[in-house]
Each structure stands twice: as structure tokens, then as C-alpha cells.
Specification:
Elements lengths: L1 H15 L7 E2 L3 E4 L2 E4 L2 E2 L3 E10 L2 E15 L2 E14 L2 E2 L3 E10 L4 E2 L3 E10 L2 E2 L3 E4 L2 E4 L3 E2 L3 E4 L2 E4 L4 E2 L3 E4 L3 E4 L6 E4 L6 H29 L1 H10 L5 H26 L5 H34 L6 H15 L6 H24 L1
Parallel strand pairs: 1-4, 2-5, 3-5, 4-6, 5-6, 6-7, 7-8, 7-9, 8-10, 9-11, 10-12, 11-13, 11-14, 12-15, 13-16, 14-17, 15-18, 16-19, 17-20, 19-21
Length: about 350
């Protein structure tokens, strides 16, 4: 009898003692590590970066997620994500921008407003509440429920019989398409492979000119500010995975915070000029960021294979050539551009913070 009373007491304690509620974070939150798991509630924006990133909490702001493998299972007001393999579940209350190699919107996902997805292989199974733009090689709609228009730019497009699109589905006229019976409204756009030769020549010319312009700026910087790159050599002489993630996280935070501050200054009296200057510097930093990322790549490769000090210009050219070649490979060129941008901006932001200190 005593044992029975004891068990009853334990049962009541387990089911009726109130739990401890999680503390709400009332400020911007950022974390970078090899494995990052986030489960709290933030009354603000969040930036997470790592090899494996999992967001299970509630973000009452913009949720920035970057990593090799990214999983979103919580609730966010806005979602901005970049990575190799991205899975989105849970709830996104407003707009989403997603860029990755493989992107999956699973059947538990609900993205209530506009969505832009860039990827090699895109699969959508969940519910999307408004217009969707999809850019990739292969797009699969598997039981998706989409209330707005769907714009697809891909070579292979599949939509099964359970997929419902309330608006118009538009896709290139030369795409390989397989559509279910519930797709009623269709609009064909210009062919992907139209004038391939001319498009390729134009593409190559633009790429070459772009890299040559950056190379000229790099050469000028090595002449005018050689100590800048000498400082980089010292700061990044030893770089591990955690350091790379830290730099990417700083670049992500910089890209997010600066426009917010500049827009805020627009509404403050007598701050218009400062806001415009901030915007100009912001876009200049974005443009030259690749220079620092490519130089860092060249420096680390020079360390690895030549094991001696090299001419600053030759080190930079090595990084430029490698990134130029990688940027021409379909499927990974977007990721290369994204990571060089984040790393370059991260390096510049570290210089700015160190100078301020």
C-alpha cells in the first residue's frame, strides 16, 4: 500500500508540476561552430553558420543559416539560407530566399509568402502560400500545395498528380517536363538553350572582363597598400575549419546589419548624406570582397605546395585563376561566388573591427 501511494505521488509530480519556460533572447544572436543546434526563442534576428546547422527554435526576425548541411525545423519570420544540402521544415511566416546544391522543402513545411530558391536539385513537398521562383537544373514538385504563381527556370521539371498550383506555372519551352493532371494553367517562356553559342561567348567575355577588372584593382592595392596583404599573411598563417566558419559568420552578419543601419539613418533628420555614404561603401566592399577571398586562397595554396614566401602578386594570381576556373563549372559556380563573397566580406569586417579597436 505504501509503495502504491509513493507511485501515485511520483505520477502527480511528473504531470502536474509546472515546467520551467525557456528564456527569450531580446537581441540579435549569432553562433558559429562545426555543429550548431539552436532551440531558443529570439525576439530579433539570428545568424548561424557551421558544418551542420540545425534551427529548431523561434526567430521573430530574419533567420540566417549557412553551412554544409542545413536543417530548419522551427519557426521564423523570414528565412535566408545558403549551403550544400538544405532541408526546410516548420513555419516561415514571411518571405524566404534559399540557395544551395540540393534543396528540399519537406511535407511539414509551410512557407506563407514569396519564395526564391536557387539550387542544382530542388524538391518541394510542402505548402507555399504565395508566388515561387525556382532556378536550377532539376525541379520536382511532389504533393506540393502552392497558392500563387510558380516560375521555373530549369532543364528538367516534374510535378506529380498530387501537386496543386492555384496560379500559373511558367517554364522554358525546351525543358523536359512531366506534369500531373492538377496543373491547369501553363505558360511557356523562352528556351534555355536558345543561341547557346552566342550566349556562351557573351558569358565568357563577361567573366573574363570581370576577373581582369578585379585583378587590376588587386594589383593597384598591392602597390598602394602592401601592408594590408602582409597583415593578412600574418593573421591567416594558420587557418582551421573553425576560423573559416568564424570569418563566414562575420561576413554574413556584416551583410545583414549594414543595410539595416543605413536604412535607419534615412529616417533620422540630417543623416541622409551619411546613409548614402554607407550604402556606397557597402557596395564597394561587396565588389572588392572577392579580391581578399581569392588572395587568401592563393596564399594558403602557396603555403601548402611551395612552402616558401612568394611574390604578393603571384600569390594573388594563383587564387584568381583557381576561382575563375571553379566559377565556370555549372552547379558549383553559385556556391563558389557565395562563399568568396562571405569570406571576403568577413575578412574586411575583421579589418574594420580591429582598426576600430
Amino acid at each position: 500500500m505504501k509503495k502504491l501511494k509513493f507511485l501515485v505521488v511520483i505520477f502527480l509530480c511528473l504531470f502536474f508540476i509546472p515546467g520551467v519556460s525557456a528564456k527569450t533572447i531580446n537581441h540579435f544572436y549569432a553562433e558559429a561552430d562545426e555543429d550548431v543546434t539552436y532551440e531558443e526563442e529570439v525576439n530579433g534576428s539570428v545568424a548561424l553558420a557551421g558544418q551542420n546547422v540545425e534551427s529548431n527554435g523561434t526567430v521573430l526576425g530574419v533567420n540566417f543559416l549557412a553551412g554544409n548541411k542545413v536543417l530548419h525545423r522551427g519557426t521564423s519570420d523570414y528565412l535566408v539560407s545558403a549551403g550544400n544540402y538544405i532541408t526546410v521544415s516548420g513555419l516561415i511566416n514571411n518571405d524566404s530566399i534559399i540557395a544551395g546544391n540540393i534543396v528540399v522543402i519537406d511535407n511539414n513545411a509551410s512557407l506563407t509568402r514569396d519564395v526564391i530558391i536557387l539550387g542544382e536539385d530542388i524538391t518541394i513537398k510542402g505548402s507555399l502560400g504565395r508566388n515561387v521562383s525556382l532556378y536550377g537544373s532539376k525541379v520536382s514538385l511532389e504533393g506540393a500545395k502552392i497558392k500563387g504563381n510558380v516560375k521555373v527556370y530549369a532543364e528538367e521539371i516534374k510535378a506529380d498528380k498530387d501537386t496543386i498550383i492555384s496560379g500559373v506555372l511558367s517554364y522554358p519551352e525546351d525543358a523536359n517536363v512531366s506534369l500531373g493532371e492538377n496543373i491547369k494553367s501553363i505558360k511557356k517562356t523562352a528556351a534555355i538553350n536558345k543561341d547557346v553559342t552566342n550566349d556562351f561567348e557573351t558569358f565568357m567575355i563577361n567573366k573574363i572582363w570581370s576577373f581582369l577588372s578585379l585583378l587590376v584593382i588587386f594589383a593597384v592595392l598591392t602597390l598602394l597598400a602592401p601592408r594590408l596583404f602582409e597583415k593578412m599573411n600574418k593573421d591567416y598563417e594558420k587557418v582551421d575549419f573553425n576560423k573559416v566558419v568564424e570569418v563566414i559568420a562575420k561576413g554574413l552578419v556584416f551583410l545583414m546589419i549594414v543595410p539595416v543601419i543605413a536604412v535607419f539613418l534615412l529616417v533620422i533628420p540630417f543623416s541622409l548624406a551619411l546613409s548614402l555614404i554607407m550604402f556606397i561603401l557597402y557596395f564597394i566592399i561587396i565588389y572588392v570582397s572577392k579580391i581578399f577571398a581569392m588572395y587568401l586562397l592563393g596564399f594558403k595554396l602557396w603555403q601548402r605546395f611551395f612552402k616558401k614566401d612568394g611574390n604578393m602578386l603571384l600569390v594573388g594570381i594563383l587564387g584568381f585563376v583557381i576561382v575563375f576556373v571553379l566559377d565556370l563549372i555549372p552547379g558549383i559556380n553559385f556556391m563558389i561566388s557565395l562563399f568568396t563573397l562571405l569570406i571576403g566580406v568577413g575578412i574586411i569586417s575583421e579589418f574594420i573591427l580591429r582598426k576600430k579597436a
